[in-house]
C-alpha cells in the first residue's frame, strides 16, 4: 500500500471511520474530481475529493447528496457513507465488479430497467436548468481562446433546440444525467449500479437517454432497443425527434464543459483542446446547424 497519497485523507475522517483509513491507490477514469480507493477497517471505500472548479461547472453537491440518499434506499448506487456538509469531499462504499458493456447479452434491457428505477425515485428540489447551466459555463470560458468564436456560432442555434425539446417533453423526473461507461458498474451478484451522481437533477428523462446514446455510441438499432425496453412499447417519430434534440443539447453542454476545463485548468490541456474540436465539428456537421 502506498502512502504517497495519504495527505488527501480528510482531517475529520473520525466522523465516518472508527480507525484511521489508509489510502490504497488513486482511481482513474474521472475528469472532474480526485478519487481514491481507501481501506477503513475491513471495508474498502471510495474517497472523492471534489473539484476546485465545481462552481464553474455548476455542480450542486447538496442535490447530489439528496439524490444519493434516495438512490441508496432503492439499492441503485454505491452506498453513501459520508457527505461533507461543506462539500469538500464524499465517501461511498466500493462496489467490486466490472463496467457495463452495451454488447453483452441482455445489457440494454438491464440498463433500461435501471433507468426506469432511477426515474421513479422521489423528487428533489433541484432542476436541470439548461439555459442557466449554459450561462454558467460561458462565464468561465476564456474569451481569448481560439475556439471562442466557434462556440459563439454554435450557441446561436441552441436556444431553439432546447425549446423544441421541451415542447416534446412530459413531467420532470429525477435523472442521473451522467450515465457514462465509468458510472455503470455490474456488481458481483450481477446487479447494475449507477455511481457518481454529481449531475443529478429533476429533468426530462429523454436527456438521460440522450446521454447514454452519446456516451456509449449506440447505433440506431441499439437506440431503438433501449428506448423500447424503457418505454415498453414501439417508437413514433416524436420519440426519435425528442431523443435527437436532447442529444444535440447534450453534445453542446459537453463542448462547453471541456471549454471550461481548458479555461480554468492549471495548464491548457491538449486532451481538452482535442475534445473541444471534436464536439465543435460534430455539432457543425449536424443537420440542426445547416439551415
Automatic annotation (TrEMBL):
Domain Aminoglycoside phosphotransferase stretches = 24-246
Entry-linked InterPro entries:
Aminoglycoside_PTrfase, CcrZ_PhaseVar_Mediator, Kinase-like_dom_sf
Q: Which domain of life is it from?
A: Bacteria
Matching PANTHER family, A to Z? CELL CYCLE REGULATOR CCRZ, PHOSPHOTRANSFERASE YTMP-RELATED
Descriptive protein name: Phosphotransferase
Organism annotation:
Microbulbifer epialgicus
Amino acid at each position: 500500500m502506498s502512502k504517497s497519497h495519504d495527505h488527501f485523507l480528510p482531517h475529520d475522517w473520525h466522523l465516518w471511520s472508527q480507525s484511521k483509513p489508509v489510502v490504497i491507490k488513486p482511481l482513474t477514469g474521472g475528469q472532474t474530481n480526485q478519487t481514491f480507493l481507501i481501506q477503513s477497517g475491513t471495508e474498502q471505500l471510495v474517497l472523492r475529493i471534489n473539484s476546485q472548479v465545481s462552481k464553474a461547472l455548476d455542480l450542486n453537491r447538496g442535490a447530489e447528496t439528496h439524490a444519493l440518499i434516495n438512490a441508496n434506499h432503492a439499492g441503485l448506487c454505491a452506498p453513501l457513507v459520508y457527505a461533507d456538509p461543506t462539500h469538500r469531499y464524499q465517501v461511498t462504499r466500493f462496489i467490486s465488479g466490472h463496467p457495463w458493456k452495451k454488447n453483452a447479452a441482455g445489457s440494454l434491457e438491464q440498463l433500461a430497467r435501471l433507468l426506469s428505477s432511477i426515474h421513479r425515485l422521489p423528487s428533489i428540489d433541484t432542476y436541470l436548468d439548461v439555459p442557466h447551466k449554459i450561462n454558467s459555463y460561458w462565464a468561465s470560458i476564456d474569451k481569448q481562446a481560439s475556439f471562442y468564436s466557434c462556440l459563439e456560432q454554435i450557441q446561436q442555434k441552441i436556444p431553439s433546440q432546447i425549446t423544441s425539446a421541451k415542447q416534446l417533453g412530459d413531467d420532470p423526473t429525477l435523472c442521473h444525467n451522467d450515465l457514462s461507461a465509468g458510472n455503470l458498474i455490474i456488481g458481483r451478484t450481477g446487479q447494475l449500479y449507477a455511481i457518481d451522481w454529481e449531475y443529478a437533477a429533476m429533468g426530462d428523462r429523454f436527456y438521460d437517454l440522450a446521454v447514454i446514446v452519446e456516451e456509449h455510441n449506440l447505433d440506431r438499432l441499439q437506440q431503438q432497443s433501449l428506448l423500447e425496453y424503457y418505454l415498453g412499447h414501439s417508437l413514433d417519430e416524436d420519440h426519435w425527434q425528442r431523443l435527437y434534440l436532447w442529444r444535440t443539447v447534450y453534445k453542446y453542454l459537453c463542448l462547453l464543459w471541456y471549454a471550461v476545463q481548458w479555461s480554468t485548468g492549471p495548464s491548457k490541456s491538449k486532451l481538452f483542446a482535442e475534445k473541444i474540436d471534436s464536439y465543435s465539428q460534430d455539432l457543425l456537421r449536424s443537420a440542426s446547424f445547416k439551415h
